[in-house]
Amino acid sequence: MSREAQPWHPPGVGAGFELYTMGWNLKEDLRDCMVAAAPYGGPIALLKNHARKEKSPGARPLLEIYSASGLLLASIPWKSGQLVQLGWTASEDLLCIQEDGTVLIYNLFCEFKRHFSMGNEVLQNHVLEAKVFHSEFGTGVAILTGSHRFSLATNIEDLKLRRMPEVPGLQKPPSCWAVLSQDRVTIVLLAVGQDLYLLDNTSCSVVTPPGLSPSAGAYVQMAVSFTHRCLALLTDTGYIWMGLASLKEKLCEFHCSIRSPPKQMVWCMRPRSRQRAVVVAWDRQLLVAGSSSEGIQFVLDEDSYLVPELDGVRILSRSSHEFLQEIPEASQEIFKIASMAPGALLLEAQKEYEKESQKADEYLREIKEQKLLPEAVSQCIEAAGHEHEPDTQKALLRAASFGKCFLDKFPPESFVRMCQDLRVLNAIRDYQIGIPLTFTQYKRLTIEVLLDRLVLRRLYPLAIRMCEYLRLSEIQGVSRILAHWACYKVQQKDKSDEEVAQAINHKLGDTPGISYSEIAARAYDCGRTELAIKLLEYEPRSGEQVPLLLKMKRSKLALSKAIESGDTDLVYTVVLHLKNELNRGTFFMTLQNQPVALSLYRQRIEGRVGALQNALDEFYKAKNEFAAKATEEQIKLLRLQRHLQEDFDKPYLDLSLHDTVSNLILDGHHKRAEQLYREFKIPDKRYWWLKISALANRGDWEEMEKFSKSKKSPIGYLPFVEIAVKHHNRYEAKKYAPRVPPEQRVRAFVLVGDLDQAADAAIEHKNETEMNFVLSKCSASTDAAVAEKLNRARAQLLKK
């Protein structure tokens, strides 16, 4: 339905339009399925028959994944444990959370990727409820167990489980709960009756939203906005509170006449919009509630499911897929009844021009007299981006093009870019593709991510045509997509290795940016070693061939390739690998057949110490004490590295002293690292820097804490804070902030995100520079109290 034909509602409430007539022919109601839809027009996962208790094969749960238009991508019978929740990652992998706390990860085509567990406590107490959430750290999972405790993993790619504090006296599951993100810390907000509790890493606190009505009642539903900035709370009296997720400011409230608990409540708002609205869904009724005292109610023909988006809400049902949004300002200005906005007049002028009517000149003259023609053109271009129907897009772009003809210096870039963007959007919105991105979502997602999503769906031709149309660089566009295609091609086992290798080479040739070694590595991972070897024949860089051949245990072929390359370092790498892999007799027999490798081995290993010893003697004869001492140290280090290499089967030869110590710490050999520290008299400060850097890279925070307490740090404790923050671990960094000297304490607290304590420290020092530094880090929306405290202190300081 064109936006021109839609009924218009008060600002902030919005209008809806149909994206697709769904092609999935569902026999079940959505309420009888477990549903999860990915944001940004992503795929839809359905689990059918999940609530049935029969054990017959026909009643086995069925997991199906559809495009947003309802086309089936893949399906599998569910043979694993009882599922509690489905959810999607930011990279469009499906998370299946089981009752025992196991999380299974599948791709878009129901192909299993991996699994992980949420810990023993979850296993023992089972999962009552689960939520998949997104934050700046990545995709996370939150679990409510049978013991009414919460467990979190903020990033499933770097799994670190957190058990949240207990809620005192909690004997039953909370009526509703949500995961929030405040100051880069993930917290849980839960409701028990009329009380709200906030769980952070260490404590449980009772909170009261500002401006909450005294007669609000008990909480039954809560919703966090797509950007995590806003929170909505619904009570059993029909009262809806809307405010910031920090619970520091109320935005508006709404009184609803329906008292029964809803199925869903989600936010519906555009980025940077001043209008606020939530959509509340019951079985066959939908309410859009905003800052206005009157909401809009829709009667639904079918059971529906709401999917929150960046700029609106998708509404799924058995027969249709619709999008509800706040009307963009440019569209509202142009299409509202009797609009005199410059964009509306320009659109009318263009229509009259096509009719060859003189009214076109009248409309155009009116715009030009007000000097609003550039604004009119920009308004039409912007409104075209927000339209879903190609006919309306064309009408608006024709109007913009018509208006540009009467402007001397209107820059064409915005018009050309919008035409390109709309062509891309219309291509992916096609029913067969089924990615209904809006212009706002597309700009947030970026073309690079969109191309990745087309590749994930194996829509390689469309992705390549887009790259060519947008004239993206080879490496960023076509080459990358062809490489993905080749990696997919090697998984197809219906053709011989020779046929697949030739097909890939014929398609890819010498395309810039293509790495045959990466494709060969994928073939090897799929168990096709011979195909991997054939593909490596097309790899022009020996440095890329050799490591994979070694991984495939084709060491002799790797040695031949290394010798052909003429790269002595590469040959030496293979020789070392052979030495560790083969017994002594086989090793020397292999080298006998490769004179170049044998000669190099003798030169670089056996002759090294002797050459250095000769140099040492000469230095002593010349009475060059400094050079003699340095050579002696090098001989000692070389011998020690040789022993380390033999003991730990790791390459230590030719590393610097510092790299040797660092690698030992990274590998967990702390006593050997201490030995080098003492034997080579490494300065304390340098050793402490080396050790904490290596421990942070290793992620061994427990060992770092022990080390910090072993004796007084010669480098202070600010480096501990800086390194922990650098590795995105503010929880560990906070342990060291109080131990930092007073003159560095403000910086430490700012680094860990504790602006309140940073402000206290700056005020205690009576240092205006430090106060200004903390103020510069304060956000007007979340740190108003801290800023006010600093401003008061600064004012008092200036009075003195």
Automatic annotation (TrEMBL):
<keyword id="KW-0472">Membrane</keyword>
<comment type="function">
    <text>Plays a role in vesicle-mediated protein trafficking to lysosomal compartments including the endocytic membrane transport and autophagic pathways. Believed to act as a core component of the putative HOPS and CORVET endosomal tethering complexes.</text>
</comment>
<dbReference type="GO" id="GO:0006886">
    <property type="term" value="P:intracellular protein transport"/>
</dbReference>
<dbReference type="Pfam" id="PF04840">
    <property type="entry name" value="Vps16_C"/>
</dbReference>
<comment type="similarity">
    <text>Belongs to the VPS16 family.</text>
</comment>
<keyword id="KW-0653">Protein transport</keyword>
<dbReference type="GO" id="GO:0033263">
    <property type="term" value="C:CORVET complex"/>
</dbReference>
<dbReference type="GO" id="GO:0097352">
    <property type="term" value="P:autophagosome maturation"/>
</dbReference>
<keyword id="KW-0967">Endosome</keyword>
<dbReference type="InterPro" id="IPR038132">
    <property type="entry name" value="Vps16_C_sf"/>
</dbReference>
<dbReference type="InterPro" id="IPR016534">
    <property type="entry name" value="VPS16"/>
</dbReference>
<dbReference type="GO" id="GO:0003779">
    <property type="term" value="F:actin binding"/>
</dbReference>
<dbReference type="InterPro" id="IPR006925">
    <property type="entry name" value="Vps16_C"/>
</dbReference>
<dbReference type="Pfam" id="PF04841">
    <property type="entry name" value="Vps16_N"/>
</dbReference>
<dbReference type="GO" id="GO:0031902">
    <property type="term" value="C:late endosome membrane"/>
</dbReference>
<keyword id="KW-0175">Coiled coil</keyword>
<dbReference type="GO" id="GO:0030897">
    <property type="term" value="C:HOPS complex"/>
</dbReference>
<dbReference type="InterPro" id="IPR006926">
    <property type="entry name" value="Vps16_N"/>
</dbReference>
<dbReference type="GO" id="GO:0005769">
    <property type="term" value="C:early endosome"/>
</dbReference>
<dbReference type="GO" id="GO:0042144">
    <property type="term" value="P:vacuole fusion, non-autophagic"/>
</dbReference>
<dbReference type="GO" id="GO:0005765">
    <property type="term" value="C:lysosomal membrane"/>
</dbReference>
<feature type="domain" description="Vps16 C-terminal">
    <location>
        <begin position="604"/>
        <end position="796"/>
    </location>
</feature>
<keyword id="KW-0458">Lysosome</keyword>
<dbReference type="GO" id="GO:0008333">
    <property type="term" value="P:endosome to lysosome transport"/>
</dbReference>
<feature type="domain" description="Vps16 C-terminal">
    <location>
        <begin position="514"/>
        <end position="603"/>
    </location>
</feature>
<feature type="domain" description="Vps16 N-terminal">
    <location>
        <begin position="18"/>
        <end position="417"/>
    </location>
</feature>
<protein>
    <recommendedName>
        <fullName>Vacuolar protein sorting-associated protein 16 homolog</fullName>
    </recommendedName>
</protein>
<dbReference type="GO" id="GO:0016197">
    <property type="term" value="P:endosomal transport"/>
</dbReference>
<keyword id="KW-0813">Transport</keyword>
<feature type="coiled-coil region">
    <location>
        <begin position="346"/>
        <end position="373"/>
    </location>
</feature>
<dbReference type="GO" id="GO:0055037">
    <property type="term" value="C:recycling endosome"/>
</dbReference>
